Amino acid sequence: MKAIVSVQQVEASAPGLSDNTADLDRLQQALSGTLQDERPLSVPYSCMTTVARGFRDAGFKGYALLNNLEKSRAIVGFSKAKPVVVAAMALDLGTTHLEASLLNLQNGEKIASANLENAQIRFGADILSRIHHATAARRQQKTLAPDFQDVGLDELQATIITCINDLADELAEKAGIPVAEIRALSVSGNTTMAHLFLGVDPFTLCREPYIPLFNRATGIEAGQLNLVISPVAPLFIMPSIGSYFGGDLISGILASGMARSEKTRMLIDVGTNAEVVLGNSEWLIACAGAAGPALEGGVARMGMRAGAGAIEYVAIDPKTFAVEYRTIGDVAPIGLCGSGLIDLVAALYLTQLIDIRGKFRDPAKEKDPERLEFMKKYLQLRNDDFCFVLTATDENDRAEDVVLEQIDLDAMIRSKAAMYAILRTLLNQVGLSFQELEEITVAGAFGRHINPERAITLGMLPDLPLSTYRPIGNSSLQGAELVLLDDEARNECEKIVSSITYLELNVNQEFMIRFSGARFIPHTDPSLFPSVPLFTHSDS
Amino acid sequence: MKAIVSVQQVEASAPGLSDNTADLDRLQQALSGTLQDERPLSVPYSCMTTVARGFRDAGFKGYALLNNLEKSRAIVGFSKAKPVVVAAMALDLGTTHLEASLLNLQNGEKIASANLENAQIRFGADILSRIHHATAARRQQKTLAPDFQDVGLDELQATIITCINDLADELAEKAGIPVAEIRALSVSGNTTMAHLFLGVDPFTLCREPYIPLFNRATGIEAGQLNLVISPVAPLFIMPSIGSYFGGDLISGILASGMARSEKTRMLIDVGTNAEVVLGNSEWLIACAGAAGPALEGGVARMGMRAGAGAIEYVAIDPKTFAVEYRTIGDVAPIGLCGSGLIDLVAALYLTQLIDIRGKFRDPAKEKDPERLEFMKKYLQLRNDDFCFVLTATDENDRAEDVVLEQIDLDAMIRSKAAMYAILRTLLNQVGLSFQELEEITVAGAFGRHINPERAITLGMLPDLPLSTYRPIGNSSLQGAELVLLDDEARNECEKIVSSITYLELNVNQEFMIRFSGARFIPHTDPSLFPSVPLFTHSDS
Fold first, then answer.
1. Which residues pair with B186 in a beta bridge?
2. pLDDT at position B540, please?
3. Distance CA A308, CA A304 (A)
4. Distance from CA of B499 to the nearest CA of A (A)
5. What is the pLDDT of residues A354-399, one digit of tens each?
6. Which residue out of B53, B67, B79 would a mutagenesis test of the A interface target, given it has the greatest number of A Cβ atoms within 10 Å?
7. Which residue of B21, B215, B219 is in closest CB contact with A25?
8. How far is CA A419 from the centre of its chain?
9. Do B15 and A54 touch (CB under 8 A)?
10. Is-contact B487 B6, C-beta < 8 A?
11. Among A157, B170, B197, B386, which residue has the fewest nearby CB atoms (within 10 Å)?
């Protein structure tokens, strides 16, 4: 286990007329004698003077900071006293949100956390509109000159660098260290974000056949990107596999531990896309599909990201029809995040306000008087369609109520159908059944907030014992943390990249058939979901 | 033989939905398949976009430019058509003068040359005063803080970078290429100049025990130094061995070929110091001493560097006493350069105007009437000392005559004595005699202009057949050219550095004894110089 930057005690003899070895040669020789590592040692240009002066100032003995990342190890600092803290920053570089942590590489402790909205949003909310902005100038000028400078790309890069610098400043302040003493940075993001971060042309990412310019970027120092952390801080950028399979997912696989597991597991990460990986220490197969928007709050009109004011939990008592909900931060509700949406739709199904197709049932055809009363209270007819007014009470401080419309329900059904179809299709590729999985790891905000039981009710996730499901939180950030701390984690990333097979769903016939079959609650084949009650209505 | 930057033809299959390898991965994979070299391939951050776009623009086949310098080879450019010219700049980074050439790495041809005065001169004419300027701020502020920024050092670096950029612009213009298409730079200079070029603290260079901050600086790209050549151009900085043994001399050893020779040779390079190396392919021993100033024109009051108006050749007929001289550029004389000074002093000895101690003889004691007449014409008594007025004729357009004073003669005798003592001491270290040398290579302006016969007359160089002496011109520049063209030359530099033994003369007793013995013309032991006539005078 070797951190990205490590401390090495070293002592050299002092120079004299009979030993006029240059300061940096002296340091390199003394270190080579101490280290059990055959890689050559170098000193990056930008810290030659500070390292040599530090070494001399300390009387030619003390503690060298070593960048262990590259083939040739670099000496990036020297101090007389043993450093108590060697700080390194891990970053989840999300399309909408950045989440960062500061680790002490000396003991692995997390010493600060921070997060921030991705300010690139002002140039476009999603990946496609950002690529559009990045490449606007060259498309207008119709140039393909290799050295053409894209103004929009520069803007996007400068914006994200500013965000990262703000996060670094905040982390350093919380940790009580100068920001220039952050000694390394690991970045885990999707392929487009990695391109925009490096200011590298994303033009071909979103055009068939969807080719990234790079999957790996090595040997970059923070100073080259105008980052405010130590200019010689090494950057570890999580490798990606393709346009739609980014470093954030490699991070997730790493954090989940599935690539070290003998038994087969599944990893589900829902963002704008649902990304799913199946495998073990021998093999990995992955795919991605558009199952996410409704779940991330991107489709439902009242949808929102998990954040303060988002309804994250909803329950309706099937007997009393009492409605209960909880918002993140316990503040007045302003919308529904993914988990709240799943809870609500599952509850609507279990209380029979919607049918197996996910359509609101007509109160006019309801025979149960209590349900009818409930329907009258919560269902409204707007534009010829029913909708469910969740917050038809006075604790709502929005101008509008939090409402679930039929159009939201339809999107939700498509999303859950896509999710289940993705899981089944992937599993079928290797001839396994859900029951053979050791674990289903659920990453991200989705994993943290959803109740797997409710997702099973909807037929979104397979009907397995709840203990099969393990939420792991922000696995993109966790993977970025792991690579800072451990060279074996860094090597595992390369192993993951080389052992993964990618299944393209857009051209997959089986997926389309399974998708159609999954557009009912819980499924057209209810035997797949024995734990879910089945309701049939004469009006369906 | 592999140039520092080479061209490699490569062809890859085009991407498609079934092969969505990233552009740079595709290029790296195709190149790895073609190259017979196990080193990994990388693409420097600053040219990721241009390389990938160039590759794509060329239809995924064409010619890659490879930086072969580092452990990990870098792809630094891509073009559809085979480049006819791959330009690289070699630079002799002298304390007073810069000399540069532009080579076409495709065929080894020199395509342009340029030279320039070192503009750092305005901060100090010599190395010591420049180090003083570089470190003034920190000495005033009495700080040793490792990250203290020396203003003077920054000025000196910015000045030399501007000079180099001017040279690069001139070379590019002469060659008819954009300056950004200069793909590599090799730099050969003394240890202080290398420190100032990189803006690295030279503080300890001139203080006992005279320790450089670095001897080797690797992995630097031109862009890091604000050079106007290609920002990803690799820099090859000639390694040095110590404060007084710089990369320029490693260059000289390389250019002389002595480190590849089975027979033992000697290399003499006279600048501010006389630097002398003895050895063969098995071993090398070197030393430096203050034999130079008089020879480089730094001591004689009329002394000057070899340049327009410098008297580079003097002859006096021993029978007719007719004086002849020639200036560089055939213009009116303004001073004496090293070769003119040697010629003049040798002629004064052979015409018996000076005695074996190098003292002007008193005309009052002269018995030969023709010599007496000559003495009366050319010798003048100034401040109680005789001096020789070389240009006591009307072609002199200086305000003053070009005059050799007794003080100049004394300095000359010290210099020549030091030179001979250095050569003898060095040779004695390995138990060899001058007669066992295959060759004495004489580098630099000194080697180009002096007549070895006259130097032998003075007892400065050993009395060997003239065919033993080989002038090779600017060997510092030649070495810089060789490392651009050939990886074997680059490896030879490391071999030279590791095989050289340095002999410190300042504390050498033998040298001091030999120095005293050599303070006569030609020597206190005339049998060492059988070819030189010996004159004794009753007045000596």
1. B90, B236
2. 52
3. 10
4. 15
5. 999 999 999 999 999 999 999 999 999 988 899 999 886 555 455 5
6. B53
7. B215
8. 17
9. no
10. no
11. B170
For residue A200, give the chain B residue with the closest CA.
Answer: B49
A140 in the same domain as A33: no
Model pLDDT, residue B251:
97
In a domain, B246, yes or no: no
Which of B26, B27, B49 is the best residue to mutate to test the A interface, defined by the most A CB atoms within 10 Å of its own CB? B49
Q: Are residues A43 and A145 in the same domain?
A: no
Please report, for the domain that includes residue B65, its CATH number: 3.10.20.880
Are residues A48 and B146, on separate chains, in Cβ contact within 8 Å? no
State how far the Cα of B411 lies from the Cα of B293, in Å rounded to an integer: 8
Q: What is the pLDDT of residues A22-66, one digit of tens each?
A: 999 999 999 998 887 777 889 999 999 999 999 999 999 999 999
**Minimal CA separation from A49 to chain B, in Å:** 6
Q: Give pTM, 2 decimals.
A: 0.89
pLDDT band of B437, cuts 50, 70, 90: very high
| Yes or no, beta carbons of B198 and A48 under 8 Å apart | yes
The answer to whether A218 contacts B42, with C-beta atoms less than 8 Å apart, is: yes
**Count of residues for chain B?**
540
CA angle A59, A63, A65 (to 5 degrees): 130
How many CB atoms lie under 10 A from the CB of residue A208?
10
- Under 8 Å CB pairs connecting chains A and B tally to 154
Contact call for residues A258 and A236 (beta carbons, < 8 A):
no
Residues A16 and A60 grouped into a single domain: yes
- CB contact under 8 Å between B22 and A214, yes or no, is yes
What is the side-by-side strand order in the sheet with A403-405? A379-382, A385-389, A403-405
Amino acid at B150: D
CB of A5 closer than 8 Å to CB of A47: no
Within this chain, do residues B280 and B421 fall inside the same structural domain, yes or no? yes
Cα A413 from chain centre: 24
User: Does B103 lie in the same domain as B215?
Assistant: yes
| Chain B environment of A508 (Cβ under 8 Å) | none
Q: Which helix (H) or strand (E) holds B78?
A: strand B73-79
A137-151, B272-286, B412-426: segment of lowest average pLDDT:
A137-151
The residue of chain B nearest to residue A40, with distances taken between CA atoms, is B71
pLDDT at A245: 87
Q: Which residue in A208, A233, A281, A268 sits closest to A91, CA to CA? A: A233
Q: Choose the closest CB to B212 out of A19, A22, A211.
A: A22
Which residue from A minimizes the CA distance to B48? A200
User: Which of B20, B213, B507 lies closest to A22 in CB terms?
Assistant: B213
Which residues in chain B touch residue A201, judged by CB atoms under 8 angstroms apart?
Answer: 49, 52-53
Please give the residue that has the higher pLDDT: either A506 or A126: A126
Q: Which domain holds residue B126?
A: 87-237
Instruction: Verify whether the Cβ–Cβ distance A208 to B43 is below 8 Å.
Output: no
For residues B363 and B411, state if they share a domain.
Answer: yes
Task: Supply the DSSP string of A3-16, one letter for each residue.
Answer: -SEEEEEEE-PPPB
- Start-end of H helices in A389-529: 406-429, 444-449, 452-458, 475-485, 487-499, 509-517
Beta bridge partners of A89: A102, A185
**B20 and B107 both lie in a single domain:** no
Flag if B209 and A40 touch (Cβ within 8 Å): no
The pLDDT, as a whole number, for residue B439 is 97
Residue A258 lies in a domain: no
Establish if A249 belongs to a structural domain: no
